[in-house]
Design a protein that fits this description.
By secondary structure, this protein is mostly beta strands. Helices cover about 5% and strands about 15% of the residues. The protein has one domain. It is globular. The model has no long low-confidence stretch (mean pLDDT about 95).
């Protein structure tokens, strides 16, 4: 997923989706949409994807707890843009925006990310 107003001309072999103001990610294990993309407004707990800060300018949804989704196992685990200070994330993985753009053309549906 990407912010079209902030990221232009990205090339990737994986499916792209524009992040719009009405997109979020459900992180509420009581919801049937847990660990899925949702449209806002949304009554259950969720994370907004359209942010003022640039960390969600580019998001790769890591295939964790997605098929099947298991309640309370974890959600919203993304590879996204890091802060300028390279601050820790809240359970995601982040790298510099220029590096994320650089690796995108090499990522396919078969790419495996090993996080240690």
């Amino acid at each position: 997923m990407y912010r079209a107003d902030r990221v232009r001309n990205i090339f990737t072999y994986i499916k792209k989706k524009k992040i719009k103001k009405n997109l979020g990610w459900c992180d509420d294990p009581t919801s049937s949409l847990y660990n899925k993309l949702v449209f806002l407004p949304f009554k259950k707990n969720h994370e907004r994807l359209y942010l003022k800060k640039n960390i969600y300018d580019l998001i790769l949804v890591l295939n964790f707890n997605s098929n099947p989704v298991v309640k309370n196992k974890g959600s919203a685990i993304f590879l996204h843009v890091s802060t300028k200070k390279l601050s820790p994330t809240k359970g995601c993985v982040s790298i510099k925006k220029k590096d994320l753009i650089r690796i995108l053309p090499f990522i396919t549906k078969k790419t495996k990310f090993i996080i240690s």
